[in-house]
Amino acid sequence: MSSNSDDTDTPTDVAPVERRTFVQGLGVLPLSTTLFDGDDDSQTARSQNRPNGGRTRQFTVHAVEVDIFYNRFGLHQPNGVMYVLEENLDAVRAASGVAPDDGFSLVDEETETTQTDSNSGQGRGRGPPDDDADGDEVDTSVIEPLVIRANEGDTIQIRFVNHLDRHASMHQTALPYNVRTSDGMAVGLNPDTTAPPGDTVQYRWEATHTGTHFFYDGANQAVDSADEPPQEANLLSRGLFGAIVVEPEGATWTDPETGGELRSGTRAVIHDPDGLGTTYREFVPFYHTPEGMKPEVFWPDSDEPQTIHAINYRADPLGQRDDEFYNSWTNGDPGGGDNVFETYKGDPVKYTFVGASLEENHVHHLHQSRWKEVPRTASDTIDAQTIGLGDTYDAYLVAGHGPGTLRPGTSFEDAFEVGAGYVHQSAGDVLFHCHLFPHYAEGMWAIMRIHDEVQPDLVPLPNSSGLVGPDDDTPGYPEFVADAIRDVYDLGPDESPIGNLPPKPPLSSVDNPRQPTDVEEQVFGPAEDIVPGAPYADPCTSPEPERIVEYTIVVTRPGNENGIVYNDSGDYDPEALVYVLDRVQIKDPDGTVQETIDVDDADLLRNGDLNPEPLFVRANVGDCVEVRLQNELEEGFPTSVHPHFVGFDQLGSESVTTGFNYEQSTDPGDTMQYRWYADEEGAIFFHDHIIGVSEGMHGLFCGLIVEPKGSEWLDPYSGDPLYSGAQAIIDPPESEAFREQALHYHDFAQLRDGDTGEFVNPDEEHNQNAGTMAINYRNSPFYHRDDEDPAYVHSSKTHGDPETPVLEAYAGDPLRLRLFQGSYEEQHNFGLQGLQFDPEGFAQQDSVSQVIGTSEAFTFRVSSSETDPGFDHITNPDGLPVRDYRYGSNTIDDMWTGMWGLARVWDAQVDHLQTLPGQDAPSESISEAQLEAMGHPAPFADFDWAAEGQRAKLRYASDDDRAFPPDRDARQNGSIGEIPPAPDDAGDPCPDDAPVRSFDVTAFQVDIPYNDYGDHDEYGVVFALDRYVDEIKNGERPVEPLTLHANDGDCIEINLTNDLPEDPNDDHPHPKMRVSQDWDRSERISLHPLLLDYDVNGSNGSTVGFNYDTTVDRGETVTYRWFASGEVGTSILWDMADIRSTRHHGAFGQLVIEPRDSVTLDNRTGEVSVTSAASMIDTGNGEPDFRENALIFADGQFILNRDDPDDCVVPPGPDIENPDAPCTQLGDTEDQGYGGVNYRSEPFVRRFENNDAQHLVYSSRVHGDPNTPIWKALTDDPVRFRVASGADKARAVAFHLADHQWQRFQGVDESPVIGVDGQLSPGKAETFSLLGGAGGLGSGSGNGDYIYQETKQRRRLEAGLWGIFRVRQQPDRFPDEAIQPLPDRAGNVPLSGRPGYVVQVGDVTGTGQQDVVVGVPESEIGAVNAGAVYVFTDTNPSEVTNLADATLQLLGTTTGERVGSVVRLQPRQGESASDIVVETDSGSEFVVAGGESLRDLVDSPPGSDVAEFVRRTTNTRVEAVAAFADVATPMDGDTTGNGSGNGNETTTDGQGGTQTDS
Questions:
Q1: pLDDT at position 323
Q2: Residue 236 has what DSSP assignment?
Q3: How far apart are CA 71 and CA 313, in angstroms?
Q4: Average pLDDT over every residue of 1255-1259
Q5: Sorting pLDDT into bands at 50, 70 and 90, what band is 1532?
Q6: Residue 665 C-beta-side C-alpha neighbours within 13 Å
Q7: Are 56-277 and 287-469 the same fold in CATH?
Q8: Where is the composition biased (Basic and acidic residues) (predicted)?
């Protein structure tokens, strides 16, 4: 049976529904027009969205069970499942249960090379002969995730055959389809389009845009909530996922091994004559975490099991390979040969990496490669990317090109043509992996092999260059490495090199250089010509470098017995390992030394006189960088300096033993030489890649910052030239100078308590202490700044400056913050509060709360107009013109553990800070005595900052206690220890002519009901408009996150009142922090905005640095003043007075900044909206009006069940180590608590109580609609989803909306089009403008229920982070509450047909013209269901598009009064005018006098609270606003006129509007 048509029979597994009963019993009814707008579920074309041309591509896809072997060592997934094309079905079944065993084929002459036919996949790995296969080798490479292809404009028809023992499906995440026939789910009121066991369904997708588009099973998305264990219940974790790559029109694709037709495969050759105009290789790696793996694998020398992480059904964990576990000479190629992606030198390569893990994010990193964040633009060039479930990124590997590079005039196409091996054409094995250190150690890595010799099973491309042919005498890679192995181990020419560790590259060791063999000289040239660190291909040749900068770097342990001391409480890492600069040489390109600078940092460190920070060195664009790494560690600690991003020879300077490359580490006691080419500006991560898994968290990470060509580097305090340091003044010759701060995030910092010597965090993960967080080897934990109220944790006046870096600048200085994440596993984000980053061509939202994972590096620019924004700032409490801004992570565990610091901007000159070259010094100055009185550390320092430079903060004086940071006493000086006062003024960032939007807001405690199953937060802390607080407390108005609206150009005033209880109850099981410590809760509260302009000393909502206190005490009211300087979308609002105690209780909200001059309308009533999350935006500027849905996702929330606190939102799964803990404290700290969408959730486990069929968990026909918001729109309506992460933990939300797509980067023409965005971590908010509007781009009906969800399934999606976007063709076709048409589309719906309206037409003003009266009984502006009446004078009903344009607005103010339930017009005696007779829900009748009285009312409405409320909070265009009770009089029973008689009467049932002429 196909599930592709309306299901008119009673489903056998559907139980009656007893709640949310508008769909009660629907499971036994056929779908009908009561639910949808049409009976036809066929692909009825919406012609405006029909794709252009194209062909229909048909695939028969089977879901089959398979025993997947992940490597040659026996690791396998016995219960694996996968998608497979019908033509490959037999080959997959033959390979099931067979281990890939082709790991030495490149060097093993006994291994035969077999080509496969064009339809059977690519014959990479071969297992042992199958007993039933006549001795033939089994091709295991056919077991890989399904990747199919189509051209843009094609239609894809899928016949899906389910061989599994449960329902299964294919849910497409990023292409259009008909949601009622091809969704692969059973969502809302849609039919079930999953396939029962043994059944077949048809799916149809439309390839409307290029890119790679993920699909996966939509029928089994529970993990710990299912009755079965995850390895049975969850098909994603068992392998049921794949992707379709939509290639450009006109492109074709072939098998890379045979050159023949290719129907599927993770590797392909793409011939693209009309797009990029070239032929290139395409590789598609999927990053995933399989469940149910056998046998158990353990960390080396441990009984701790390894979690397995994989790429393309292959994994090679550390526990199954030797210490050189990337090394193929001893271990074989990864995946038994199946995880090697082959190319030739010069071949253009495109990677598409895909997130397919059910729980965790990953970071894709490809060595010796880079790509544009947005192809074909001047966007950032990157070499690492965080990916969540469903994220796909197309990465075209390019040479550095465009602005800020050595090739400014090179086009994207030409940079792509450079191909594999980069500009210098290096050959060898290139590692790619998830850069979360434990993840690659647990198997998530693979190899790209760049051949320089023609291979029998790899067809060359037109760009393949410099290849050794089969008849050439010159040996190719890796033959010369094999020869070196034979030479070192004294093997005979016929003896195999396999099993032996390769030697170092020739001449790379300074102390023990190995001379090249004759074969190596045949390849590299004579010994005298071999470049140390670049034997195969010198990167510093094209073009010739400006100069050579040689750094001698020492890796050692600090001489201080405490290692590195991280904070003022003495938390320290006694096992610290650091890189430190010892010497610098500046050379001419020919190597002639021009200058030698001896740096004494290494000596200071060895002697225990330096408390180091991570090493940051610099180069200019065009510099060749030579690194001499001197290893002073003990035996057993070989190290390296593996560089990202820069050009280098893979066979000499990767410093990793990858594949069949040389061994490139630096042994203890040795010095190795490496050579890099800095051909592009940027922040470049380099780190140890040898012992990083076990030791990297102790400090083995650095940064290379490539500055503009020809720049000078100066110390910001001394003004002296510098060669290392986190802070610098950079003075380029052809552009303005700027200040620079380098920041290295890291986690798993192995800190011990200074008093006890015990780990500050006793937990272990991945066989390591789970540690804590830090920036630049420092942290400033909240729990160490707890001797005053928590509202002052960021206050320097109270606690002194934080131990973390403080960047100082003058007003008008441009800033660049270089952010790295050096270690180890966790996700973080970054923001700078109060200063906006330059979006550099992107939306402003894209630069807020930037997600960062290990190895990622970013440059954030702050323009001079931000540090000097053009309005007068308040001086600080000491009367000094200085202001402090908090930077750091916005995830709660990071903040708690001290991952934050300060940026300080001076409006007057100070002695310790140099001005930028070319900039005038500020006209005012601050004396040292004033600085001392303020508490600034410079006057108290042991070393003069202006003389010693930034190192003054790192050096110990002879009498310093080395158990603490050397600058502790300077920061903890006698002038600090006070609570700063509140300011007298909020500041004035607004232009004089800015419209003012004013909101009275109260913070209070209230029970938050997350659903009607009893899941709630008894101790919820919420913000609400004062007018609505009592209704919320009384349960009359829903508890929702505060949602406010303002426009671009508005001045926003917030009057915040603190109504929290005295001594609030804090005795309940909060989700824990990374480091558990006692905490006394604050009674203060605040509202802190992101993305807005304000005076940080007056309206920050946080007490930061030496600023004023801008938090609010109990019973007090404080005013904040903010300015919206752009249409920035959603600004998250947080309480920063005690974010640890309140954000997991809901203390967040949102202020949505709309287009200038727009009016926000309520979706249901069409009235001006004060605080609606579902709105219509009347743009007022000629642009199309749009619907807006404002979502705040939150995780880590305190949610327990009211009836049974032990009945968890998500049951403790088998991986939970503390199943008896309170529900809110289950699992790792990063996973504790539960999630919600706008304070609502719909947990799987609650729905399973009604019906445990997994594939029906989203069905409203079975369970009723979810408690989460149901967003609504009419077909083709322009829609913007404003999606934000309000709280709290680090995983980030991966947002998906079915059958709808949007640009990843809004407003960027070249932006990829996506259907999943996995970058939403706390503080991040994005606007997703739906392409094609509601119903999407496809040619389907545009009519149905579309799931929105957090894609990550374990403990997130299954906790209830999903809901429905409901689209219908008419406003009244919704099964519950109807909606109004958009104003500019309202002409399609007569006023009398608009749902919920009571309409009368007549002359109520006495002017002889037609007037319109509209009753809106469901209006909630004045109070819940208080109702309203609107009058439009001299107006035809057809001209009424929304109620914000009314002449008169009369608002009910009594809850439940429903003013306007009945409206009639009663002629006035002796006049042409009529009175307006209005009935309330109770039956009471009131009269609003017409004629002259009404005209006077419009001219001079009586003042009222509700009228002032509307005027202050909205941008209404209504001419007059009044309280209904102030202008209406009760009917007196007189029926003869003057408002007291019977007239025509109209009522409404709340669904359809009605109209009567009088």
A1: 74
A2: H
A3: 9
A4: 98
A5: confident
A6: 23
A7: yes
A8: 957-971, 1066-1079
